[in-house]
Amino acid sequence: MTAIALPWASVPRPLVTERPSDERDLVVAAQRGTREAFSELVRRHQRRAYVVARAIVMNHEDAEDAVQEAFLHAFKAIDRFLPDQAFGAWLHRIVANAALDVTRRRKVRDADELPETVASPFRDPAESSELRTRLSQALETLPARQRSVIVLHDVEGFKHSEIGKMLDIPEGTARSDLHYARSQLRRILGDVRSGL
Asked: Engineering a disulfide at 69: which of 98, 148, 156, 157 sits with its beta carbon 3.0 to 4.6 angstroms away?
């Protein structure tokens, strides 16, 4: 992953004399060009943005790339955001779209690579147990959207309506994707239960 100089990252802190604590105030300040306000929005939302991206792309490096792209896009598009809306929902939709774009690019890139040049995938230290490995492998068999829906709902606790907005799909589609994803995982992981 190549580091990009992000416009809000190198700004000295004392640009805002009064620190807006309300998210709406931060958005308005960011729209007026106060980079520290946008930096604070990034700090407040970076963990959740990473979780959303990771649910879609399934690996650490791509999730970081997607989050970085999403925050850059949000920074450029902040003027079009309506401050009365929920900033988090708007941002998570951008993150989800960036993650889906990363997934699409990876599929194209992987299809073009020769088998002997395929690198081993990144593994988080927390994913060393057999159960985590099997669950991760099972999740990778699901289509990206269904994988995203199940992780966003069952792991992160988002509601169907929120997931629909993030992934730009109807709420009913989020529900059916969740049902299908759970059924597939039950089928794939059925023997794990008996082994515990």
From this structure: 98
The model's pLDDT over 104-140, given as tens digits with 9 standing for 90+, comes to: 877 655 544 444 444 445 544 444 567 777 777 888 8
* Length of the chain (residues): 196
Residue type, 147: R
Q: Is 82 helix (H, G, I), strand (E, B) or coil?
A: coil
pTM of the predicted protein model: 0.60
Instruction: Please check whether the two domains, 20-122 and 126-196, share a CATH topology.
Output: no
Closest CA to 127 of 183, 54, 45: 54
Domain boundaries, the chain: 20-122, 126-196
Question: Both tokens of residue 9?
Answer: 């990252």
Distance, CA of 38 to CA of 7 (rounded, Å):
10
How would CATH label the architecture of 20-122? Orthogonal Bundle (1.10)
Question: Does the 126-196 domain belong in CATH 3.30.300.30?
Answer: no
Backbone angles phi, psi at 141, to 5 degrees: -80, -15
CA dist 48 and 43 (Å) reads 10
* pLDDT the model gives residue 21: 56
Which tens digit of pLDDT belongs to each residue from 64-102? 999 999 999 999 999 999 988 889 889 998 998 898 888
Residue 19 and residue 34: Cα distance in Å, rounded? Answer: 11
Question: Alpha-carbon distance 16 to 34, whole Å?
Answer: 7
